[in-house]
Amino acid sequence: MTTYTKECRVIDKQWSSAAEAVADIPDGTSLAVGGFGLSGNPIALIEALLAQGTTDLSIVSNNCGVDDWGLGVLLQAKRIRKMTSSYVGENKEFERQFLSGELELELTPQGTLAEKLRAGGSGIAAFFTQTGVGTQVAEGGLPRRYGADGQIAVASPVKDTRVFEVRGEEREFVLEEAIATDFSLVHAAVGDRHGNLVFNKAARNFNPLAAMAGRVCIAQVERLVEPGELDPDAIHLPGVFVHRIVEVGSDIEKRIERRTVAVEGA
Q1: Measuring CA to CA, which residue among 54, 24, 34, 1 is closest to residue 207?
Q2: pTM value?
Q3: Stretch 103-113: mean pLDDT, rounded?
Q4: Is the domain of 161 the same as that of 198?
C-alpha cells in the first residue's frame, strides 16, 4: 500500500512596502486603478509608482483624481499617455492636457466601464449593452486625441450593433469589448495574507472590478489580519484575484473631494 503525504503550503502575499510591490511595473504598461472620486484611491501605490519614475502609462479608472492627489499626481508629472474613464471633470490639468493633444482619452459610460472591467476579470471577451445606442459611443466620432491645431487627431471607432428580442420587444444593443490590464492597483480597508479583501462603503465601487481586471493585482490595505480572521461572508473580493498586499495603516491620508457642511440654524 502506497502512503501519500500531503504538503501544506502557506500562501503569504504580503510585501514589505509599496515601493517594493510596484518595482517591476515597467514603462508603457496598462493599469486598472480603483477609486470613486477620491474615495478608495490607492494613494500609497500611486505615489510609489510616481517616485520610481514609471511613465507612458495607459490607465483605466473611473476618474483621474484631482490636480494634486490620486492619479492627478501622475498626470501632473506627465506620466500618463492614455486614460480610459467615465468622469474627468474635477481636474484642470486633465482638461489642459487633453485639449492640447498631450493626453489620449477613451470616455466610457460609467456602468459600461464597470462591466468591461468585470468581464475582463471573468474571462469574458465582450458583451452587448443598450447603453450608448444611438449616440457617438456606438456610432463613433468621439474625440480621443486632439492635434496641435485643435482638430480631432484620433476619434472613437464605429462599434458593432445587433438587434435582440427582449421580453417580446426588439431592441438594439452595442458590442463592448472587455478590459484586461497588465497590473491593477487597489485600496481596501482590511485584508488577510491570502489576499482576501474587505472594502469600506464607496471604496467598494470600482476597487473590486479593477482588481479583477489586472493580470497582477497589488492591494494596499489599512489593516492586515491573519488568514481565518475574516468572516467568509464578509469578504468582498476573494484572494484568488489578488497577488500582492501591502499594509499602509489606518492613518493614511484619505481626502474628501467636495466637503459640504450645513449652516448652523439653517
Answers
A1: 34
A2: 0.92
A3: 97
A4: no
Cβ atoms < 10 Å from Cβ of 49: 29
Q: Using an 8 Å Cβ cutoff, are 172 and 166 in contact?
A: no
Q: Are residues 68 and 169 in the same domain?
A: no
Three-class secondary structure assignment of 100-167: CCCCEEEECCHHHHHHHHHHHHHCCCEEEECCCCCCHHHHCCCEEEECCCCCEEEECCCCCEEEEEEC
Give the residue numbers spanning the domain of 90. Answer: 18-125+182-247
Strand-strand pairing, 244-247 and 214-225: parallel
Q: What is the pLDDT of residue 264?
A: 79
Instruction: Kindly tell me the number of DSSP H helices and DSSP E strands found in the chain.
Output: 7, 13
Q: How many domains does the chain have?
A: 2
| The pLDDT of residue 10 | 56
- When comparing pLDDT for 4 and 239, which is higher? 239
Could you report how far apart the first and last alpha carbons of the chain are, in Å?
83
pLDDT score recorded for residue 263: 80
- 139 and 226 both lie in a single domain: no
Q: How far apart are CA 42 and CA 34, in angstroms?
A: 7
Cβ pair 83, 31 in contact under 8 A: no
Return the pLDDT at 266: 66
β-bridge mates for residue 245, sequence order: 14, 219
Cα–Cα dist 78/82, whole Å:
11
